[in-house]
Specification:
By secondary structure, the protein is of the alpha/beta class. It has 7 helices and 7 strands; from the N terminus they run βαβααβαβββααβα. Helix content is 44%, strand content 20%. Helix 2 crosses helix 3. Bound molecules: flavin mononucleotide. Flavin mononucleotide binds next to helix 1.
């Protein structure tokens, strides 16, 4: 099994989402020792600025206009990045909630790579995702608990966004591991985190 792990916490060893992702990967590797993991850390990756030639390339493509050599070169870089998604059987996002959404470096990656002819296409029926048959696992951490004070429909732009993106690229099988209340008192935070560790292992066993 080939896994693309896209991590988006800059907190290194203190990161809750990275610890959960580690449990997930360890369980997967115990299950299948041939598991290959391609790790893309959005804080370390050299992300392409999406203005200038990249933006012009996108609009040239949409308009059916020949790209300049500079635009072609940038588009090639985007296609190379897209290849990492195509090569994976499972795409794992480990993602902390930031301002009820996702960290901006992850949004940057998604905005760069989610292009026509790379991760989706258009046909007469509309948008068609190019990654069908793959699975997405979202390992999400957040300081608060969604629900009463923060109704999920209004406040969740983290998991909800990644579900929408998955659907846009043609992936219907999305599994969720959540650890909430990470900024609560240690007992509450620990209880949530422990349950999430178990869920991470369970999802890895069931893939
Ligand atoms: C810039 C920033 C914004 C944050 N915004 C939110 C938020 O809107 N809602 C929330 O529940 N937690 C928020 N948090 C807290 C993190 O989601 C929480 O600490 C999480 O457990 C971090 O995961 P990590 O340890 O994997 O980085 C924010 C943290 C940072 C650094």
């Amino acid at each position: 099994m080939k896994v693309l792990h896209i991590s988006s916490s800059p907190r290194g060893e203190r990161s809750a989402s990275l610890k959960l992702a580690q449990r997930f990967m360890d369980t997967l590797t115990e299950r299948d020792s041939t598991t290959q993991v391609d790790h893309l850390d959005v804080w370390k990756a050299d992300l392409l600025p999406f203005d200038g030639p990249a933006l012009d390339a996108k609009y040239a493509d949409l308009a059916g206009v020949e790209m300049t050599p500079e635009q072609k070169a940038v588009w090639q870089q985007i296609a190379e990045l897209g290849k990492r998604f195509h090569e994976a059987d499972v795409i794992v996002f480990s993602v902390p909630m930031w301002n009820f959404g996702i960290p901006y470096r992850l949004k940057h990656l998604i905005d760069s790579v989610s292009q026509r002819g790379v991760l989706f296409d258009f046909d007469e029926q509309g948008m068609k995702g190019l990654l069908p048959g793959k699975q997405v696992v979202v390992i999400a951490t957040r300081g608060v608990t969604l629900g009463e004070d923060y109704p999920t429909e209004a406040f969740d732009h983290q998991v909800a966004f990644l579900k929408t993106w998955s659907r846009m690229v043609g992936i219907r099988d999305v599994r969720i591991v959540e650890s909430e209340a990470t900024l609560d008192g240690p007992e509450i935070a620990e209880a949530h985190f422990k349950a999430a560790l178990e869920k991470a292992a369970q999802v890895a066993k069931q893939l």
